[in-house]
Amino acid sequence: MDIKIFKSLQALSAVELEQQQNHYVSDDIPPAAIDLKASHEYKVPVINNDYFFRNCSVAIRKHNRFAPYPVHTHQFFEINYMLRGHATEYVNDHKVVLNEGDVLLLDIGSQHRIDALGTNDLLINVLFRDRNISLDLISQIQAAKSVLYDFLINNMATNPKKGQYILFKNFGSGNNEIQATFDALITEYYHQRDFADTIIKSQLTILIAQLVRNNRIPVTTTSPTQKLAIDLLDEIRQHYQEISLEVSRAA
């Protein structure tokens, strides 16, 4: 990783300086980011599907240290990457411990909270929406018989199982390709050079493919609803110029 970017991640932000003093979360997410209706329904703050993606397709944020982050959920996918140190999260009340190099993939609707991080802990959050996942990638993941297929296609089902998560362990120095892709993602995001958004979307696709390649966890049998979702998406992809609602229904 670019040494300047790494040092900037290590440096204390204004929010972290405040949290270091009082050990209480000083939230840098404004009220406009909260879906009030969904928050009332789920009884926890729900971060909406728009706020982080106003100027980018994939958002990358350092998790602020020194204060526990309260339970919340969101309308997009989130990847937590433990760049340095360790962290303890609670996802749907399940304790999840992240060590350096670990990757946690959180589903839309996952309710999670995070214990306070220390000075030497760096947790990177990669936020993206389901529209950033291409049908070609989903088809290849299905062919690889990966648990990620069931996870990603779940949100296309009529009654999706909300709040799932997958923990990928031991992607530290022992797995250079995934570490290198995360480094490239973070570097590209913080440099913000020309075509950064396009490059970051491509790197996200590479990252997901690498997670599949390095984790041969078998997927469950595809349900009829999931198969229908894939068939409809394939129909749209092949005939997007002339397709209509009637054609989709007929399919």
Would you mind describing this structure in some detail?
- The protein is α+β, with helices and mostly antiparallel strands and 251 residues long.
- The protein is 38% helix and 20% strand.
- It is built from nine helices and ten strands.
- The strands form two sheets. The protein has a five-stranded mixed sheet.
- The relative contact order is 0.14.
Secondary structure layout:
Elements: H1 3-10, H2 14-22, H3 36-42, E1 46-47, E2 58-62, E3 69-74, E4 77-84, E5 86-91, E6 94-99, E7 103-106, E8 112-114, E9 122-128, H4 135-143, H5 147-153, E10 165-168, H6 176-191, H7 196-213, H8 224-238, H9 245-250
Helix pairs in contact: 4-5, 6-7
InterPro entries: AraC-bd, HTH-like, RmlC-like_jellyroll
Domain AraC-type arabinose-binding/dimerisation: 69-120
Keywords: DNA-binding
List keywords for this structure.
251 residues, alpha+beta, Jelly Rolls, five-stranded mixed sheet, five-stranded antiparallel sheet, 9 helices, 10 strands, globular, disordered C terminus, AraC family transcriptional regulator
| Low-confidence residue ranges | 218-223, 243-251
Taking Cα atoms only, what radius of gyration do you get, to the nearest Å? Answer: 19 Å
- Describe the strand arrangement of the main beta sheet, using strand numbers: 1-3-8-5-6
H/E order of the elements? HHHEEEEEEEEEHHEHHHH
> Main β-sheet, in a few words?
5 strands, mixed
Task: Provide mean pLDDT, rounded.
Answer: 81
Derived from helix and strand composition plus strand pairing, the structural class reads: alpha+beta
What is the distance, rounded to the nearest whole angstrom, between the alpha carbons of the first and last residues? 47 Å
User: Which overall shape is indicated by the principal axes computed on the Cα atoms?
Assistant: globular
Tally of individual helices: 9
**CATH class term:** Mainly Beta
What is the total tally of β strands?
10
Looking at this structure, what is the CATH superfamily? Answer: Regulatory protein AraC
How much of the sequence lies in strands comes to 15-25%
Relative helix content: 25-40%
**So, CATH architecture?**
Sandwich
CATH domain fold name? Jelly Rolls
